[in-house]
């Protein structure tokens, strides 16, 4: 076997094993040094072990993996690529030197605690494409600490925090997505009004709101996340208007006072997807055109 054939065979074996990806981010030979502290798997940046103050994540990266930069206190600036789609859990958590970040238009998801503990992070720009925000993504950041409004919004209408104390919650017009856990364990909440135009109720958004008596889900909502109203033990009824497409696991589980949940027919040709145990404590559940998965 000549040298060319041998080299081709080795490359083919590496690609088959997932060691090398044809779509993986690449740096030019002259630019290799800045990326030498980065580890990649396909289009994911899985870890960074360097100590540079300013880091440029290369084009082609679609995901920054969980804990990739966690507790990197040397980091003060990070440039994110136009190809980036998601930032994983704890990806930049504890980067106490990071002062600002610009999120690309391609980004759609921020996982749990992605920037939590970035105590100097005072400015977050962009993020208009983000529709999924995990638990406490900006917890203990300068940006969130400085917010004075009761309802703290980010990007294009994502409600990321509630800093009020009212028993009567009126989510403001313009909110399109409620992040995970925003109202979790607010035991004083007795009433809830959700705006037309709301699209997503994040996982565990109202978990443990034990005094909440009932809820009306507006027709604009397409997704009720996992555990969204889990253990709302005082809730007696829920009216879910047409438009909902998916109701997550345990969305209304352990709502012991629940007597009725109404799910209308799906607005499209597909039935409403109801994940198992979504209503495990409802004594009466009226389902029209629903499919249990």
Brief summary:
The protein is mainly beta. The chain is built from two helices and 24 strands.
Structure description:
There is one protein chain. The chain has 293 residues and is mostly beta strands. The chain has two domains: 21-146, Ribonuclease Inhibitor (Leucine-rich repeat, LRR (right-handed beta-alpha superhelix)), CATH 3.80.10; 150-293, Leucine-rich repeat, LRR (right-handed beta-alpha superhelix), CATH 3.80.10.10. 6% of the residues lie in helices and 26% in strands. The chain contains two helices and 24 strands. The strands form six sheets. It has an eight-stranded mixed β-sheet, with no helix packed on it. Strands 1-2-4-6-8-10 form a six-stranded mixed β-sheet, with no helix packed on it. Strand 11 and strand 12 form a beta hairpin. The longest helix has 14 residues, at 3-16. The chain is elongated and about 60 Å long. Residues 3-24 and 27-32 have low confidence and may be disordered.
What's the SSE blueprint?
Layout: H1 3-16, E1 38-41, E2 44-48, E3 54-56, E4 63-64, E5 77-79, E6 86-87, E7 100-103, E8 109-110, E9 123-126, E10 132-133, H2 142-146, E11 151-154, E12 158-162, E13 168-170, E14 177-178, E15 191-193, E16 200-201, E17 214-217, E18 223-224, E19 237-240, E20 246-247, E21 260-263, E22 272-274, E23 285-287, E24 290-292
Parallel strand pairs: 2-4, 3-5, 4-6, 6-8, 7-9, 8-10, 12-14, 13-15, 14-16, 16-18, 17-19, 18-20, 19-21, 20-22, 21-23, 22-24
Antiparallel strand pairs: 1-2, 11-12
